[in-house]
Amino acid sequence: MENETIKFIDTDGVEKEAEVILCFQAGEQPKNYIVYTLNEMDNNGMIALYSSIINGEGENFKLENIDDEEEWKMVKEVMKKIVVDWKED
Question: Which of 41, 36, 33 has the alpha carbon at shortest distance from 7?
């Protein structure tokens, strides 16, 4: 099965293609989140994961930064679970 990809324009105006790891909805006032990778390695030799809030639907969406500390803490827990599950497989 081929993984889903998205294309987006970064803050420098460069189009990038990312592999979608997970999309989920969470929070008291539910928001849509995405965890994705550009398949690049971090300083520890692990594939770097990124997360954003998804605003919009279909092909007309915008990725927004997660600025709220509690919200970011929740998303980091989801990302940690992804890494732990991957290591167990």
Answer: 36
pTM for this predicted structure = 0.82
Instruction: Give 24-45 pLDDT, tens digit per residue.
Output: 998 888 899 999 999 999 898 8
CA 83, 71, 22, 5 torsion-angle sign? negative
DSSP designation for 28: T
CB 71 within 8 A of CB 52: no
Per-residue exposure over 39-64, b if at least 16 CB sit within 10 Å of its own CB, e if not: eeeeeeeeeebebbbbeeeeeeeebe
Q: Is 52 helix (H, G, I), strand (E, B) or coil?
A: strand
The residue extents of the domains of the chain are 5-88
